[in-house]
Amino acid sequence: MAEFCLELSDDQRQVRDWVHGFARDVVRPVAQEWDEREETPWPVINEAAQVGLYSLEFLTDAFADPAGLTIALVMEEMAWGDAGICLALFGTSLAVTAILAGGTSVQVAEWLPRCFENEAGAPAVAAFAATEADAGSDVSSLRTRAVYDEPRDQWILNGTKAFVTNGGIAGIHVVVAAVEPDLRSRGHASFVVPPGTAGLAQGHRYNKMGIRASHTAELVLRDCRVPGHCLLGGRDRLDERLARAREGRSSGRRQAAMAIFEASRPAVGAQALGVARAAYEFALQYATERRQFGRAIVENQAVAFKLADMRTQIDATRLLVWRAAWMSAQRRPFGAGEGSMSKLFAGETAVRVSEQAIQILGGYGYMRNFPVERWNRDAKIYTIFEGTSEIQRLIIARAISGIHIS
């Protein structure tokens, strides 16, 4: 067995440095513009696709790292550039994860390339739709229904999804729906909705506090018909799983949406880490350059101690994220909720650090022409989406106690 080591490999460092360069040279110069426009930054997506950063091959290679760290490094660096643009680029990965987790080999081969480009070869984005207005943290209460039309071998989807990243503008949508509502989460299934499918439309487009370069909208499905082969995993696997659930036996798999969120938590934590690091670095530079009463403000303990705490929290966050990413890659169970720990601590660190960065800058930190204001707005989402901080604590508490705490 290899000795314990936290040193990155040459390949990991090269990828990190390459992505950092893209974030520094391409993303940061336009981050404020796209935040103010509150639109999907297609020019950045196109440039990322041209250099190979936005592609199925790159994402596959990143996830293939046996140490699990490459995807965490990528997410940290991209969110360091800008969290909204990071999500515009990598929001597609949720749909990719859903297809990989639930699809057959034929479905994976058919749909994954379409998540990144359309039939004409131009860049496209994908979306994963699970959340609903009355089913956020409680994914077992989904109202979106899927009914099988056997003569036509089609599934008919009806419902409205909320807070969907890339909802309505995506080529591929992966939708979680209830097949047998009485079975709650065990009666769910996931469906690929191909481009141009009738009955699928964008609903309300949300105006957000932060991550404004990432498109978020409702997704409305009205008698949306998809072919039978769009059921991820296939009909036989679904029937077997439902039969086991009806008999009260274990289905042998986690509920689909929850499994996807669990797998994504270290990557989401890495994004929050990137936001925190950006705010800390800016505040540190400002504190060494800003002079008051004849000396740099970093020479005051009140400021220096803030920076010391910020750096300590950032380094602790990185260790939690790396541990969870490594465990996920090694297929080790999160026996103590380690994935949730990484996301919980990272999200709350991003909020604390960005708030302290504003405090160090004083009045300038509150101004929109300084980026710490934007980083603080971006940071808050990491305590809310992909499972709120309260839900993460619930998961951790259940894991460490063995008790179903509610």
Please name the defining characteristics of this protein.
3 domains; Butyryl-CoA Dehydrogenase, subunit A, domain 3; 406 residues; alpha+beta; Butyryl-Coa Dehydrogenase, subunit A, domain 1; 14% strand; Butyryl-CoA Dehydrogenase, subunit A, domain 2; 13 helices; 9 strands; three-stranded mixed sheet; four-stranded antiparallel sheet
Distance between the termini: 40 Å
Largest sheet: 4 strands, antiparallel
Shape: globular
CATH topology of the largest domain: Butyryl-CoA Dehydrogenase, subunit A, domain 3
Spell out the helices and strands N to C: HHHHHHHEEEEEEEHHEEHHHH
Task: Kindly provide the radius of gyration, computed on alpha-carbon positions and rounded to a whole number of angstroms.
Answer: 22 Å
- By CATH, the superfamily of the largest domain comes out as Butyryl-CoA Dehydrogenase, subunit A, domain 3
Mean pLDDT: 93
Residues in β-strands, percent: 5-15%
Biggest sheet, spatial arrangement of strands = 2-3-7-6
State the helicity in percent bands: 40-55%
CATH class label of the largest domain = Mainly Alpha
